[in-house]
Design goal:
By secondary structure, the chain is α/β, with parallel strands linked by helices. It has two domains: 11-141 and 191-249 and 426-503, Rossmann fold, CATH 3.40.50; 143-188 and 255-379 and 383-416, no CATH class. It is 48% helix and 12% strand. It has 23 helices and twelve strands. It has helices spanning 16-26, 29-34, 40-43, 111-118, 120-125, 147-153, 163-184, 193-206, 219-230, 250-254, 257-275, 277-280, 286-302, 314-324, 328-343, 350-361, 366-379, 386-399, 401-404, 407-415, 448-457, 480-492, 511-520, and strands spanning 50-51, 59-65, 78-85, 95-99, 126-131, 212-218, 235-243, 305-307, 310-312, 436-440, 462-467, 500-503. Strands 1-2-3-5-4-6-7-10-11-12 form a ten-stranded mixed β-sheet, with helices on both faces. A two-stranded antiparallel ribbon has the order 8-9. The model is unreliable at 1-33 (pLDDT under 50).
Length: 521
Amino acid sequence: MFTFGKSRRPASALSGVVAAAIAAAVLPASAALAQPSVPARYAQQHLDWQQCEKDSPLECAAMTVPRDWHHADAGADITVEVSRHRASDPAKRRGVLMMAAGGPGGKGLMRPARLVKESPSVAAAYDVVGFDQRGVGRSTRAVCENEAEFADFLDGDFRDRSPAALRRVVDRSRKFVESCRTRSGDLLPYLNTDQTARDMDLFRSLLGERKISYYGPSYATMIGAYYATLFPQRVERAVLDSNIAFDGSWESFLKGQPMSFQRRFEKDFLPWLAQYDGVYHYGRTAAEAKAKWERRRGELGQRPVTVDGVVVGPNQLDSGAIQAMYNAGQGFRPLAAALAALDHWDVAKPEEKATVRQLFGGYADSSFFAQYFSVTCNDTPWTRDMNHWIRRSGEDTRERPLAGARELAFASVCAAWPTSPAPKVKVTGAGLPATLMLNSVHDPATYYEAAQRAHRALRGSRLVTVTGGGDHGQYLVGNACVDGIVDAYLLAGTVPAGDTSCAAGPLPVPEGARAAASAAK
């Protein structure tokens, strides 16, 4: 969400005194006083750029950062791995476009490669840079449960509301927290959005840039908004794609997800599934498809399916469906094919069983959730009253079960999380240029109502609403309207006069339906 000048001055040329002077010069006085100083050992380090991987278009380097930016001399340093792709047309270069990953728990190091491939015009004008956030990927990582232990965390049926089942859920969540405490040590409190934003600003300075432009999807919208609030005059342009409600707490935002995932499932996926009953045989109406889904889920509770060592029970069915709701083009057809395969499991083909294993056994791994819970539990306070979560999760399990059934397991982790020292920054947009925000109306993860709240909180922002769809992530997914608005903004600084909209693309058509249509012709 930022842009910079064209200087390539080596970071090592800056002394700690000069770096501090620059910080004071580019920030409002009140903000400058609030920023911790950057010790010379960080401000003067040299990034040793090397090719990230064989055949990769990106260069990578290891950046050393303090464990705690507010007490830089306390505790061992950690590493943040960074990447870059230099502007393909130096004559047109206008600065740096920094990217971050969502999640929390996503890896951002290699993401610039896709952007420069999909948008050559942006790649010509910007050095596109990325990083693995502290806690994930090639950076210093958080460690909690191993894969076998985390499989136990997801085992069973989260809809079971018996006292024994509820106790098991809470105990497993507390076991997860204890594993994080034991295995991540004193790193855990410093895996939060505030620390990541300060890592970004060090990266900016080591690139020799006064300003940056920014693109971030999902959780990275919060990272970008947070960075822009701390360092508004270091931001030239910012694109926030599929927005977290950064106006409030993680708890209040995540309480809305059972509603939005259920909406996406019932309003988009089930009607689509029913439309292709001739292919998937799941019912001719959304109601019939939902009833069959519930029957299948109940049968898996009685008799789970095992494929390549992966047990597919009720929670795995839900988890696979949750992942499929993010993107219709990538998720609807595989989910429907996997459901159809479960209907004839005894005679299912190897490729059908492979789809089932991928869909229902490929949920995010334990390393993802080590970071996910670190950030969501650290950033903002959580209600620790378990009676509250028992009541709340019971309601969501009844009314919004797809994601609501797991609410107790997830909330119990944050309810038991160690108290975090993370400061809370109020996002206002003060001092920022116009920021571009994107969101679809049925996004299941970053739901539209939250995006509207974030839009109101970010003064001067423009919201591009993608109507008639529910995909998560709108830029460079084939929507020419969205891509045109974003590219015009990044390349020329053109912003819509006010909030605007783009129509979503069509939902996918199954291969079987195409074949039937061709035969009919």
